[in-house]
Amino acid sequence: MAYIGIQQQIRSNNRKSVVLLILFPFLLIVLAILVTRSVQLAFFLMIACAVWFVIAYFMHGQLIQKATTSRPLSRKENTRVYNLLENLCISQGMPMPKLNVIDDDSLNAFASGINQETFTITLSKGIIEKLNDEELEGVIAHELSHIVNRDVRLLIVSIVFVGIFAFISEMAIRNIGLFGRGDNKKNNIPMILIAIVVAVLAYVIAQLLHFAISRKREYLADAGAAEMTKRPYALASALKKVAGDPYIEAVERRDVAQLFMHNPQLAKKDFFGSLFATHPPIEKRIEILEQYA
């Protein structure tokens, strides 16, 4: 079957993802004002959040590498992987990203980085050893698509924002005294409760927006990989194998786990579970890829 509508899907997903991302700072500003009930305090809170954002944004590479226990993979160590990546990059006219490996027999992979100097594809030892060349090429193409579409940067931004929302929500709950002391504090109980509810709701909304961004980007990367390799069936086959054993033992943090090609920490497959899932169901991804075989 021809690849009908993939470019339209890419443009649509990009537009929706940008809209979702714009909502993050808007929610942050509203939340800061409601929690502090002071423009001056909200201003200082926004400055602190901005500093936090910059530090997390530029330090994410080291944090991710430490959290996943990944290490650089040299060309001498595995020429096969380098050749697959190099051929794909040449076909797309793009520089090669760095290659890392996780010494784990499970099957998974992820892309990270914010610019050409830091873009990295990380593969588990299991996915390298247990996939054939076509399947592994599909996986690498999937991660390359994340880089080409700047998905990794988008997800890093959304992950940092969600962390900030979590901090503000916790601050709203712990620092109840911010709204008054003594008898005046009793008079402010309704506003205290409102601020706490607003903080928690904003955090939940931020989580939902973040998860929506992640799910849309996985479909987009699958479509991009199919176009790069012209073998959607190979990526579908790889996803079937990944689904059987995606658990990287070193990864326990949810914010890091959601970067992977398949997140083993998916919520239950009901309506509410699907809202909080970082990835679309892998069965659905396989089904869509097989339609183009």
Number of structural domains: 1
Ranges with pLDDT <50 over ≥5 residues? 1-5
Strand order of the largest sheet: 1-2-4-3
For the residues shown, what is the average pLDDT? 78
Summed up, the helix count is 12
Oligomer status? single chain
- The global form is elongated
Number of strands: 4
What share of residues are in beta strands? Answer: 5-15%
Percentage of residues in helical conformation = 55-70%
Q: What is the H/E order?
A: HHEHEEEHHHHHHHHH
Computed Rg: 21 Å
Distance between the termini: 6 Å
- Class based on secondary structure composition and strand pairing: mainly alpha
Largest sheet composition: 4 strands, mixed
Which helices and strands occur, and which strands form pairs?
Blueprint: H1 6-36, H2 39-68, E1 71-72, H3 79-92, E2 98-102, E3 109-112, E4 120-124, H4 125-130, H5 133-148, H6 151-174, H7 182-187, H8 189-229, H9 232-244, H10 254-257, H11 271-275, H12 282-291
Helix pairs in contact: 1-2, 1-6, 1-8, 2-6, 3-5, 5-8, 5-9, 6-8, 9-12
Brief synopsis:
This protein has helices at 6-36, 39-68, 79-92, 125-130, 133-148, 151-174, 182-187, 189-229, 232-244, 254-257, 271-275, 282-291, and strands at residues 71-72, 98-102, 109-112, 120-124. The chain is mainly alpha-helical and 293 residues long.
Note down, in words, how this protein is organized.
With about 290 residues, this protein is mostly helical. It has one domain (about 5-290). The protein contains twelve helices and four strands; from the N terminus they run H-H-E-H-E-E-E-H-H-H-H-H-H-H-H-H.
